[in-house]
């Protein structure tokens, strides 16, 4: 993409590029993040002009980065990005927002399940700390 080449060849900052093309720094940043999407998606956007919604495309990339925390393979991440992209084209931006929200809540649930320590703050009870020790049966607990 021209903006990426311009940034790399001339060493321009996002602010400088934004000023020169009459867009915000955030827009330029989002536009550059779109280039991290699978090649199939980038080619479809360029060839078919299927969407100009840079914010939605950058959100697809952002959710994929967050999902990498789940130790997803690159193949799984790419499939996630493609499914969100094609879902955006078919169902629109509101669908994408709901789907990203749903995926983030699943991610949060999985993160909570991974953690052996859960800390809750309650006005009445104060601070509660729960420690989950996996693979302990009643006999092992008695030993402790």
Structure notes:
Helix 5 runs antiparallel to helix 6 and helix 5 packs parallel to helix 7. This protein has a domain of 80 residues. Helix content is 67%, strand content 8%. With 144 residues, the chain is mainly alpha-helical. It is extended, with a radius of gyration of 22 Å. The model has no long low-confidence stretch (mean pLDDT 79). Strands 1-2 form a two-stranded antiparallel sheet.
Quick overview:
With 144 residues, the protein is mainly alpha-helical. It is 67% helix and 8% strand.
**How many β-strand runs?**
2
Specify the number of helices.
8
Percent range for helical residues? 55-70%
Strand content: 5-15%
Distance between the termini: 61 Å
Order of helices and strands: HHHHHHHEEH
Oligomer: single chain
The coarse silhouette is extended
Return Rg in Å.
22 Å
Sheet with the most strands: spatial strand order: 1-2
Write the layout of secondary structure elements.
Blueprint: H1 2-10, H2 14-21, H3 25-34, H4 39-48, H5 54-67, H6 74-91, H7 93-114, E1 117-122, E2 126-131, H8 138-143
Antiparallel strand pairs: 1-2
Helix pairs in contact: 2-3, 3-5, 5-6, 5-7, 6-7
What labels describe this entry?
144 residues; mainly alpha; two-stranded antiparallel sheet; 8 helices; 2 strands; extended
